[in-house]
Amino acid sequence: MAESTKRQNIAGGKAPVATPNALVALESAMSGAIGGKVRLQTTIPAHPTLEGTLYTICPLTHLVALFTAPPNTTHHLVSFPSITAITILSPPPSVPAPPPHLSTTVLNARAAAALQRAHEKASKVNRNVSKEAQEIFDAISRMLPTRWDGKDIVVMDQVVVKGPGYRSEDCRAGKEAASALTRVKKVLENERKKLAQREPKGPKPVIPAVPAIPAFSGGPRKGG
């Protein structure tokens, strides 16, 4: 009967422990209380009762690590054979679900794709052309594959829009790309019309001239 009492499951609240034969059961039971608040009854004369958070247990050395709450935080190492009873005062906090597994292959592929997109975006900006030229390039690239070749715009690797004019008469293509040339010219003409419509209309405001200020002679005035 006494041996049965010593083997009580710790989940029941209070579990007396006295013999080395119960060490394995104690380790198994206490492992579920790690992180919770417990009270230990011990055979240690200086600390017959210890209360605090169960930090960890070591099955190799048969030691329990316990620390008390602030302001007087103290860490205690208690051997299993010296524990006569343990009471769980509060269960350990719920453990969050582990994060989902992330494949390094997938992550590397995403990083490479993002880097490729960044390079492609940067290659579409030409700092050596005018703002109008860049706007024309952006408009064509929204509809057709476009890239820069110096200051020239290359469309579908078939049509070259020569800079710095970027007009329909500045388009060049081989005979086999006649249909592509016609299409690019049409897109270019439409974009130039849009640019012209966005320009401010009407005469520029005239700033009135500042009237001249008579020069001061600096001499003394005569008379009263």
UniProtKB/TrEMBL annotation:
It comes from the Eukaryota. Residues 193-202 have a biased composition (Basic and acidic residues). Residues 193-224 are annotated as: Disordered. Residues 100-196 form the AD domain. PROSITE patterns: AD. PANTHER family: LSM12 HOMOLOG. This is AD domain-containing protein. It comes from Imshaugia aleurites.
